[in-house]
Design goal:
This protein is mostly helical and 93 residues long. Helices cover 71% and strands 0% of the residues. It is rod-shaped, with a radius of gyration of 38 Å. It comes from Deinococcus navajonensis.
Length: 93
């Protein structure tokens, strides 16, 4: 730290004591920081809620397609097995 040759060096204890005292500028900076922090938290919550709604909508579409899909004409494996038993053992197995 450079000092003016005509002035004595400041006392470190006085400098530290002055730094510990909170002023109006300190409270204003704290208010600005907290306002920004709360805004970032709210934005993160909205972003998470957005992903959750996209995930739920996707699950609903997949479920709807699985339940209401048109009949493709192919037999399900259980139907094929039933037909094989019926063919091998007759109608009254």
């Amino acid at each position: 730290m450079t000092t003016d040759p005509g002035r004595p060096a400041p006392d470190p204890d006085l400098l530290l004591a002055a730094a510990r005292e909170l002023g109006a500028d300190d409270f204003g900076a704290a208010d600005r920081f907290l306002a920004g922090h709360r805004a970032r938290l709210a934005q993160a919550r909205r972003r998470q809620a957005g992903w959750l709604s996209v995930l739920l909508a996707s699950a609903a579409v997949v479920t709807g397609l699985a339940v209401f899909r048109p009949d493709s004409g192919s037999d399900l494996p259980s139907s094929v097995a039933y037909e094989a038993y019926q063919g091998a053992l007759g109608a009254e197995w």
